[in-house]
Queue: 2 jobs
Job 1
Amino acid sequence: MKRREALQNIAFISAGAALLPACDFATVPVYSNIPMERKQWRMVEWLSDIVLPKGELEITTPETTAEFVLRMVNDCYEPEDIEKYVAGIQGFEQYLLETFDTNFKRLDEEQTTKLLSELDESTAVPENIKYLYSTTRGLAQQHFTSSEFFLTKYLDFEFVPGRYLGCVPVAG
Amino acid sequence: MSTDTSHQFDAIVIGAGMTGGWAAKELCEKGLKTLLLERGRNVEHLKDYPTTNMQPWEFPHRGQVPYAIRKENPVISKCYAYKEDAMHFFVKDTEHPYQQDKPFDWIRGYQVGGKSIMWARQVQRWSDYDFEGPMRDGFAVDWPIRYKDLADWYTYVEKFVGVSGNKDGLDSLPDGDFLKAWDLNCVEEHFQAKVKESFDDRHVIYGRTAHITEDRPIFREQGRGLCQNRRLCQRGCPYGGYFNANSTLIPWATKTGNLTLRPHSVVHSIIFDEKENKATGVRIVDAETKETTEYFANIIFVNAATLNTNLVLLNSTSSRFPNGLGNDNGLLGKYVGFHNYRGKINAIHEGHKGFKTEGIRPTGGYIPRFRNVYSQETDFLRGYAAGFSANRGKSVNRDGAGSTMRENLLATNDYGPWRVGSHMMGETIPKESNFVSLDANQRDEWGIPLLKTNIDYDDNDEKMLQDFFEQFTYMFEKAGFTNIRTRDTKQAPGLDIHEMGGVRMGKDPETSMLNEWNQLHACPNVFVTDGACMTSMSTQNPSLTFMALTARAANYAVEQLKKDAI
């Protein structure tokens, strides 16, 4: 009996999940200056990742890229810039629909590449969308280049060098 | 108001920063029961350095100060060291307002240790070319002392704080008791050689800096260790590698058993007793409870930092001194000066491509004043010193988006060109029209009148700035640097954090406030030994001179007390 009940429950949960593929129980984090609906927040997460994909790299950071991007915009940017950023978030879904006839979850790799080059280079992209993109891009880059991984492996960073040498031959 | 006997001390020191710390150390060592008053909170070495071991990626905003804080505090936000890692050591504009009749960026550190926690640690001695400046060039008044009066005290201070430097043998910048220096890098040496080729009297040297680079028994006794080249000094150092009052002076004074440290003590005024014709104590307002208390002592050292020392004296009124303590001649608060830091110059050096630096160095190159040293040679008075540094970092390709950007970043390998830069530290001429005063109406929440600043640049400063640009452009060209760019930051006075004067030393009570031992002419048991005592400003970073003057005056005060002369 018990086993059957358990199986039934699993079947029920599976059915629910299948019926509601977008079901997302995570709580949308609150950024006092950046009002976002759940799908907009997911969209910023997605954008923060595709703009500088970590791929197979194992980079440990205290926060996700999107968390850093949103925290920086929310806390450090001027109100008029935050306004542009928020407008960018609000207009992005429509922009994708018009440009690719789909939403961000359904973009394939080729479309994603096209989107990035369009955002990077096209002058036809609406100003707020462009601002959303360039800000997210810049902050994702800052998150990456200020990581322990990048600082120590690529920028000679040492927390406690214990020395200063003024004239060292460059290797190679 | 409490006036019980436990409020009686041998000495009271107002301000627990760099010079107040020195006064307390000297007085306590000589056996005086000393009350050290500090308006801010206590900051204990090691214990109260919350960010000292944080990695750069651990700061939520990677060092940036959030917008709301910058917006509310525009003045302090201009300070180069006001970043996420050390902002807790700086006074916010909103916490302690003041009245800028002319723009003045007043950078303050209200805590035990004061600004010695976040200072830039440059310690260059003055020479007689500096002390003789006012007399030779006819401004301010003649200093009552010369280099010989201070030389041994410079050594005394250097031995205790630890100073890394080279013996350069320059008469314009006397050598001291130095610990070994780190390298000048190859491009700094290149510039040094090129400048030497063209000028006999211009020298690029290593900037003497208050860091421990050699083991000595005195540093062990202080519990301080070698500098580990992190260059995160503004957070407080876990090794005690650089000098601040918290690691060095306060614990030393505490060890004597003679120190009483009272944080959260806003000094209202110094109490003057008309019958005894001397200062007898200090009236404070507790910063937290707002309660007024009086403390009494035979001598009082005022070390509240330049402008606050002026404020304390201006607010110390009595029927004998209606215009502020010791202010018979009306000079109190006047002849304030600072350092002109407006000039910056940057360039690229295409040479030395086969070399780089390794590790970190908490100082840089220094070019002592070369203008008007031996005689007047320009259409402006005095001159400027300058910093000079060369750096080379990895070149990072930040272009692209998506995996292209990742590939670009991960291709980081080669070094970019050497970047060189210099900034001026110009002497300003103290003038009567550069002054501070008390606002007649507005008071802060402790009932102290707000300070008003009337301090500005003058024509001499503008000419000097242009000369810095011309001379350094020429020297940079001689060194083969390219892409030379000069920049006038147009910053207001104050941001140099080298404000000085207002209670100047001099020989004559008619024309100065303090005598040769930093005693108020008109109230000799009050000593002023912080930046407020400076008669002229010269070009050197002034802290070392403040400390030497303080140690000298404190020892003199003890001698005079023994003789019952004060």
Job 2
Amino acid sequence: MSATVAPPGKHRPRPSQRQRVFAERTRRRVRRRQWTNTAMVAVLSGAAVVATLPLLLILFHLVREGASALSLDFFTQMPKPVGEAGGGLANAIVGTLILIGIATGIGLPVGVGAGLYLAEYRSSPLATAVRFLSDVLNGLPSIVMGIFAWQFLVRPVGHFSALAGGVALAAMMVPMVTRTTEEMVRIVPVALREAALALGYPRWRTSLTIVLRTATAGIVTGALVAIARIAGETAPLLFTAFGNQFWSVKLTEPVAALPLQIFNYAVSPYDEWHALAWAGSLVLIFIVFVISLAARFATRSRFGGMGD
Amino acid sequence: MTDDARVSAAAVTTAAPAAASGRVRVDARELNAYFGEVHAIKNVALAFQDRSVTAIIGPSGCGKSTFLRCLNRMHETVPGARVTGTVLLDGTDIYAKGSNPIRVRRHIGMVFQRPTPFPTMSIRDNVAAGLRTLGDARPSRSETDAIVERALRRAALWDEVADRLNTSALGLSGGQQQRLCIARALATEPGVLLLDEPTASLDPLSAQRVEELIYELRRDMTVVIVTHNMQQAARVSETTAFFLSGELIEAAPTQRMFTTPSDPRTEAYITGRFG
């Protein structure tokens, strides 16, 4: 190829016919591979774009339709009757936060505890049963969860309540958190556990202060996904939290929730309510987004990222 | 502190080993260990002198690590594993009924093949980790600081980490992490230190530092080191025990072991004919 290869005064021998045919064939093959490579990269990046397209479209659409209804009033005012201008969803926003709070307060400790149990006593009959039931529960339609919560928490009491809604959401959250916790605890190296035991740590202390601590970042991420999932659930709330046109923060009273309000407004025939539904969706997504960000921030390694 | 002198004097050239007191610190008798049906340790009797280093050598799978883990009741933490026989620690059987494995492990430190710093803890908290389990005997904050410094000095790590005690232990190199684990084991002042191939995953220079450290530690504790590196056994130990297929073939003063072993299997192993 370059002059340095061929010694001066000597020319390279002419390639034979066979060599030329072979070289041509190689060139063609390489060209085809390059083409295949380009095509595959294009297909895969296309798939990647398509995968994120819905989110982008949703965000774009929500902003376009809902931004007009977003104002300070939206966050501070109560819903107004049809025909009256303005009004907001203050009660629904607060209600959703209350419901998320109840669900997380119950679902997180139960889920983490159950997950830790599954990981630590992985082959006990109870663990096998719980693991199986968790998977079943994970796939349970949320409307069924709502009916179940109504049967046990609404009917005996005689009225809808925020508590019943929170419990229904917690029941949806538990299996998700359980399985993530189990996975995260399982990938903590045995060597770490042994190191703690060899230091004279009792088993419970090893589990809580070494194993669980090490798995925390992963568990929090999993819990966040679970919270984000339940934050937008509507079906379990239909028969439990029920929704409320008025301001209520009492746990024993029906409470408004963004998903319910969005549903009610979206199926209504009024344009102003449609706009409010869009704005409500935007706020709901924003709440999920803020929860994610906050937890990311909270679990950032205190050693500036070196720890993960 | 005398620790300074001790650390700076750390050198493989130290002539005579600190005189072994001749007192038996750990005494294993008729020790058998099993993994389910597998008989991993077969009727081993071996005593460890106070203030000395005993090396356990043997080919892979001969049970040397398992034997070591029987000495601080770590073997039984593996599902399906069990132990029979006795191990006397200062005359008390650690396998006696009513003996608490957690208390036993507090008196017997252990360091593993791979460095195992706790990833969520700072360097300081790693060293102090063992102190947290002491309940009422738990030292105060200032006492803890002093203990951490002493342990890190004994592990010859203090100078390298003194200015970053509150940073992550994962920021240290592999050799530093292993010395951190030794410091962590030393912080609770155990009388016995078990080392399971402590230099196997380290580069030669780090391994040398750890060896120097082991050589120093014999001054005030009983050290048992499992190694598949025979040169290392020859360098750091006073007594060497040779294991094969779960049996103790021979235990003798290191020098005699490596010059005139009495069992032909020992000779075959140390001359490199197998293993």
